[in-house]
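Hi all, a correction to my earlier message: I attached the wrong file for DUF998 domain-containing protein. Here's the right sequence:
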Amino acid sequence: MPEALGRLRRPTLLALALAAPVVLIVGALVAEAVQPAGTYDPIGQTISTLAGRGATDRWIMGAALTLLGVLYVLIAAGLRGVPTAARAILGGGGIAVIVAALAVQPAHGSSTIHMAGTVTAAIAFVLWPVPLIADRTLDPALRRGSAVAVAGMLGLLAWLCAQAWTDGTWLGMAERALILGETVWPIVVVGWPVRRFRPSPVVLAMLGPAVFVVGLLAAQSAQPLPDPWNQSASALSGLGATSRWIMAGTLVLVGALTVLTALGLRPRVPASAWRLLAAGGAFLVVAGLSPQPVGGYSLVHMVTGGLAWAAYTLWTLALAASPTVDRRLRVASAVAFVVLSVLVVWFTVQLVTTGTWYGLSQRILILAQAVWPVVVAVMVSARVGSSQRPGRSRDGSG
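and the right structure:
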């Protein structure tokens, strides 16, 4: 093992571990989005199909799986403070993922090498916490958690096997649940020694608009209609949409990121502001989980969606009205409130009149509302950093 890998710091390893599920989700979403309409079912078909020779642009999923394997090889190589056996099994699982990605499934039939790599990877990621359970020198809470993790992953593996052996209609969902479940425990183990670890509110805030744009483009690409831009996010996540889970999952994830951003800003902005922002994120999660029916409306979706837009707009007013907030941020927040209010009115008019700019007005409104938390997080973080920086004396001696 190269010495440089052994010196990887915990924050770097944690970033690699957090990147793994993101790479998997984004790769699967993009790969599915480019498939011809009606040719792929994510509930019943595996991600191996997306990387197989019969898939359109199969390199997308193939590259995502290869990168996923590389990430786990790096994590296993750099991880310290855990048994060598655990690191070896985790690294072996990463290598098996790379092998499975490079040995693609043929258009018809199955590749023995691919299947061997897939099975090896699945088993390795389930079993790598076992040495953690057996090591009495580790934190008892980590050992107990590892036992729970193994039990949970074994349950998901059993579900996947049952679906595979019975040609079940939930094969794709079972595989995705297992793979995503297997990405969780490396994050926990890597981050365990990092006490009081708190993700930067700036990073969390920036993830919101990025996730929305990627999810929106993927959801639009999956629609067979000629003008998906004229559809609202509600329509793209509704029961009548193709691959509606893409937009629904995007709304839920953006809402969850908003809540986390609000919690990260809690010590730095007025309580009324971060609570309104968190409420907006929570309402967006509920709206994403309450899809519009075909040919009708969901009252829960409409009400929570409206409350989300209101909360995302009003939190800027709470910032502007607070005397404890920096003057520049108060003025900027007042301007933001006016701009967002105008965009809300534009979107409402388009909604009521069924205007031709309905979809575009909603997209602009959502992006504008998602950008302002980024601005606030950057400004308050810069202010905290400057207040903590040591001052210099007049003679420059410090």
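Sorry for the mix-up. Residues 3-191 form one domain.
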